[in-house]
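Predict the assembly for these two chains.
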Amino acid sequence: MTDVSALSVLVVDDDDVAAEAVIRGLRKNGMHCPVVVAEDGSAALQILRNSHARRRIAKPYLVLLDLNTPRMNGFEFLRALRSDDELRGTVVFVLTTSGSEADRARAYGENVAGYMVKSGVGPHLRGLAQLLIEYRASVLLP
Amino acid sequence: MESTLITGMDMRIESSPTAPAELAQDAVEQLVQQVIEFAPSGVVLTMAGGRIVLVNRELERMFGFSRAELVGRAIDTLVPTRLRAGHARLREASSNGFNFRSPGLGRESFGLRADGTEFPIEIGVNPLQTADAIMVIETIVDISDREDLERMFERIVEAAPCGMVMIDGRGRIVLVNPQAESMFGYARDELIGHALETLLPEGFRGRHGAHQRDFAKAPSMRQMGVVRDLTARRKDGSEFPVEVGLSPVPAKQGGLVLAAVTDITRHRALQLELRRANSNLEEFSYAASHDLKSPLRGISDLVDWIGEDLGGAESREVSRNLGRVRDRVRRLERVIDDLLAYALAGTTFTDAVQVDLQALLAGILELLPRPSGFGVSIDIKAKPFVTNKAPLESVLRNLIDNAFKHHDLSAGNIAVRVEDAGRFCVFTISDDGPGIPPASQERVFRIFQTLAADAREHSGIGLALSKRVVEAHGGWIKLDSSAGVRGTAFHVWWPRFQYSKPPDPAASS
């Protein structure tokens, strides 16, 4: 077990297989941490605001956000997050299939901590797991 | 004038105070006679009553009469019946001295030839005072050529495919053609003499004066409305986008400018439509890349997990089928990528750079997996040029890769030749593979067509994509392969210069 400090991850993805792939990938690559899944932006907001019926997340946490989710898409979620006094400092990584330059620019415009394309983070998300392990070890989160 | 004396055909000229004193009377007479005889315009001398006493050589030629036929006859012989009264008045006015102040040419009329045909002339009428009587000398210039030119100009203006408007130095309209009339909804006489501003939108009228003065300062052919949007105004007040070509018209009356006006409403509409189609395409490809790929990735993950969860306990059959699922997922992923590339080919243009052909080809060959036993020869006879490098590179890579992949033997040779051909650079990639049967030659350029039995390696988009990229950049691609003969050659004509619009390949081949 390498979880020296507590860090929870909120995965926002409407595809349950994609969300599970993140969970499995992190575990397989040694990143053991609580992972909560939200199927879209509004569920994610409820979880972060502690108003979700069933799911809770403990601080400190970071968000792995897929951009194309139904109901509230990734950008709408980011906008709502940045205009929420409590949540505007939330660390968000975009994890998406879209390599579009426009999406990337728009996401960084909403102050995301990083933009990752799923096909770019290595087999079984190894790169992502390593990044989060390092991140957890050296970055102080809000 | 008083010093000149001529009687009948017998010309005697009194020496004038200004005539050279050295010349003898006879010599002067002879000289004057010759000057008249060989003058470049027709000359006819008549008595006050209209009887012809002398004609020169040019007049004979012009009217088709011989001297003998004319001398002694009435001047009316040379004047069309309907113009005779007018002509007589002109002669009379002249001999009364009215015309003295503006001697020479000036009046346009018609002459009557011996064969009865008429022709346009310019005529000058001057009186000659002799000792006995007043005579009239008329000089005549055949202006058929000039009229021809004028008619030609008119015809060109009338038949031009665009609206033509000519304005004078004060900005008044002096000429419009039917196309301009229908384009602007005005009749000709509603425009002639009016200010050009009539045809401009309200908001533009003030500014136009300044533009017009600028043009007058340095008149030259120029195109307007290509970069900036230019709008014109119809009679009913509606406005429409135009392109205008301006050219100064060299004429005695200075400051004439001919404007060729093209209504580009349709052109603009098409442009908009195209822009919309392009943005739809972008949306489509975005959706395709996300919505098609995500579930595929899911399937691929699920297959992996099933394998992991079975932990090696699965039967050979299950293991084989999991492998087949993975293969198909990979194939589908490649098809989606290729389809996206195809859909977007030619819609994105990168900056043009100077291309070193040797380095370009070496770079492609270095990165391509080359089967052992294959040789590649490169022969570059073309000069480097400036172009969008990435698309050219992708086309050449695809063609060379195809030559490797579709070769049926374990060893072979591929030759890449580059030559200049006018404004194109021609790349020829030839192989000694099996060749492409004539029946399949057209098909290979279509999407999803592959001649290879093993479809796993080829999505069948490569050649279609190459063709699309080449054409989007203003070139074209052609294949050479003969029935029964081994080997295929692909020729790519790639423009050596940047074009904003692809030219018609047929026109330049």
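The longest strand of chain A covers residues 8-12. Residues 10-129 of chain A form a domain with the Rossmann fold fold (CATH 3.40.50.2300).
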